[in-house]
Structure formats: C-alpha cells, structure tokens
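User: Sequence recovery, please. Input:
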C-alpha cells in the first residue's frame, strides 16, 4: 500500500488541485501560462504524427493499449517513489471514467479512423470541433456562460480549421466508417473534459493520471486482443514512437490540459484546440516534408484570430 504523502507547500498544493505533477507549475500572471498553452497545442499536434508513425507498426487498439499502459506504469512508479496515496472508492471510479473518455475513446478512435484511411488533416478537422461541442456541454452541465463574442471566436476558429485542412481532403463512401470513429473520438474528448472538470478537479498529482491511463489501457485491451490479436511489430523504429506517444502525448499533453481546465473555463481552454490542425500541418511540413499550401496559411490566420477572440472573454 502506498502511504500518504507529506503536507504540500503552497505551489505544490496548486499543482495537486489541478491533477498535474508540481514540476509543471507556472507562476501566476496574465501571460504566465502562455508557455503551457503553446506547449499544449504543440504536444497535442505531435500526437497525430506519432499516431501516423505508430500505425505502421501496430494495429490501432494495440498501439493505444501499449501507449496507455507504458504511460500509466511510469506514473504509478513515480507515485510510489513519492509516497503518494492512491485514490479509492468513488474518486477512483470518477478518475477511471474520465480516463476512459479522454484517453481511450478519443485516441483509439482517432487511430482506428486513420487506419481506415481518413487523412490526418480530416481527422484534425473533426477533433477541431471539440471547442464547440465541449462548450455546448459545459453550459448545462458546468453552468458556464458562453457569450456571443466567445461563440463568434469559436466559429471563426472553426472556419479557420476547415480552411486549413481543406487542401487534399477527398470524401467517399469508403471514408464513412473512419469518419464514424473520428466522430466517436470527438464525443469522447468533449464529454471527458467536462466530466474531468466536474468530478475530478481535486485529483492528486501523478497518481490520478496513472489511474486514468491504466483504466484507458484496460478499456482498449479488449478490442486489441479480440479484434486485432495483439498485432504489433516491436522494431527499433517503433520504440521511439511508442515512448513519445506514451510519455509526451499522454503524460505531458493530458497533464497540461487538466491544469489549464482547473484554472480557466472549458470554453477558453478548448478553443486552443482550434490551433491543433494548423500546428499539425506545420510539424508535418517540418518533420515529414509535407506541403503547406495557401489555404493552410489562411486558415492559420483565421483560427488564430478566433482563438484570441475567444480568450478575451472572461468567465
């Protein structure tokens, strides 16, 4: 049994309330969290690239199960070394539900959709709807207010997303199953972040994220074994991709998301995801040699304007 941790100092208590390791703590102030917001966009964008590369070596649910298991076990070991108490009872259940939605449903659905032929740009576009869907859910469930100006910013950002990924997208009936998986992923992250803010805002650092990741791993383990037969090739090229997706995308990315959700409204934080498709395009051009056309650049400007407008609204 992991024993309780010693009393936390002021900065550590703030990190503990957000459910993120205290190493991610940032100073207060209007611009203090700008690095965290930029990091969230870049890290989340890199997940589409690591997913594209990971699917070369593993089937979708198998890749997701390994990603969550590695990340969860690493955090569990860190929690043990730091002598943190593991959550129990109802808190444990809430953490497992949030982890299943945000991690398992979202990312395994993204991988499944991309594996069925949905282009990464279209995948980013569908997940880019998350700011609108999460904001709509937050109004009745969290009693957050979304002003007309904020809605305008969200719509402008979504228009930029659509413009940025319009190049190269070709739809057909063969794309429908993949689009269905991407829609499921959108519902997963939308419902999961609202659930996280409502029920898991006080989760302990490290141990809470460990529980969520391990719960997500168990959820996707069933289709990985039954439907895919644990289809994976452990090559030298696969390990860096797996470790990046586990440690950077799962641990750092979700940790940053939960930290910002603790301090800001769901609508404000979710609007950052409208920059993810453009950031993904930029990383793809830089790392994979993918072309960025004029529509992508125009979409970047429009989505950035919409995001800035949405962030000007205070809750």
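Assistant: Recovered sequence (315 residues):
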């Amino acid at each position: 049994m992991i024993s309780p941790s010693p009393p936390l100092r002021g900065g550590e208590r703030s990190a503990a309330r957000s459910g993120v390791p205290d190493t991610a703590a940032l100073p207060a102030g209007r611009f203090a969290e700008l690095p965290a917001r930029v990091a969230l966009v870049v890290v989340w964008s890199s997940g589409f690239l690591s997913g594209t590369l990971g699917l070369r070596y593993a089937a979708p649910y198998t890749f997701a199960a390994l990603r969550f298991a590695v990340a969860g076990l690493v955090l569990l070991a860190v929690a043990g070394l730091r002598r943190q108490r593991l959550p129990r009872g109802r808190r444990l259940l809430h953490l497992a539900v949030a982890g299943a939605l945000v991690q398992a449903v979202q990312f395994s659905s993204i991988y499944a959709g991309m594996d069925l032929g949905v282009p990464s740009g279209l995948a980013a576009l569908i997940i880019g709807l998350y700011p609108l869907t999460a904001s709509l859910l937050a109004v009745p469930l969290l009693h957050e207010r979304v002003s007309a100006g904020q809605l305008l910013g969200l719509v402008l950002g979504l228009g930029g997303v659509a413009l940025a990924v319009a190049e190269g997208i070709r739809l057909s009936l063969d794309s429908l199953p993949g689009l269905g998986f991407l829609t499921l992923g959108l519902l997963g992250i939308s419902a999961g972040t609202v659930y996280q803010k409502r029920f898991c805002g006080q989760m302990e650092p490290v141990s809470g994220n460990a529980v969520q990741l391990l719960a997500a791993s168990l959820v996707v383990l069933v289709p990985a074994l039954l439907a895919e037969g644990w289809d994976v090739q452990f090559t030298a090229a696969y390990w860096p991709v797996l470790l990046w997706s586990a440690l950077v995308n799962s641990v750092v990315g979700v940790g940053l998301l939960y930290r910002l959700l603790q301090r800001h409204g769901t609508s404000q934080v979710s609007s950052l995801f409208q920059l993810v498709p453009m950031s993904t395009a930029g990383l793809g051009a830089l790392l994979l040699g993918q072309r960025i056309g004029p529509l992508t650049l125009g979409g970047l400007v429009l989505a950035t304007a919409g995001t800035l407008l949405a962030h000007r609204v205070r809750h």
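The chain has a mean pLDDT of 81.
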